[in-house]
Amino acid sequence: MKTLSLKLDDDIFEETEKVVSELNLARNRYINEALNLYNQFNKRRVLKKKFAKESKLVAQSSYEVLSEFEKLAGEI
């Protein structure tokens, strides 16, 4: 496990302390869980951007393949 020193805005720290107290959870555990969720959120966001970019790259060729299939289906 890594040791980390960080600075928090006062209002974020105070809100965190309230939530941690209500949940009866160690501050360290709470911050670990929060960062894990935020990492998952951002991984999905990055993946969504990659998919959108790659989808644009293959859009024309996908359209061409679809047109070819439609021509073949019309011949049957």
In angstroms, what separates the terminal alpha carbons? 65 Å
Whole-number mean pLDDT? 91
Structural class: mainly alpha
Shape: rod-shaped
What is the tally of helical segments? Answer: 2
Strand content: under 5%
Order of helices and strands: HH
**Radius of gyration, whole Å:** 24 Å
Unreliable stretches covering 5 or more consecutive residues: none
Largest sheet, in brief, is: none
Let me know the number of strands: 0
Topology overview:
Elements: H1 10-23, H2 27-75
Give an overview of the whole structure.
- By secondary structure, this protein is mainly alpha-helical.
- It has one domain.
- Helices cover 83% and strands 0% of the residues.
- The longest helix is centred in the last third of the chain and has 49 residues, at 27-75.
- The mean pLDDT is 91.
Features of the shown structure:
rod-shaped; mainly alpha; 76 residues; 2 helices
Write a short abstract of this structure.
The protein is mainly α and 76 residues long. 83% of the residues lie in helices and 0% in strands.
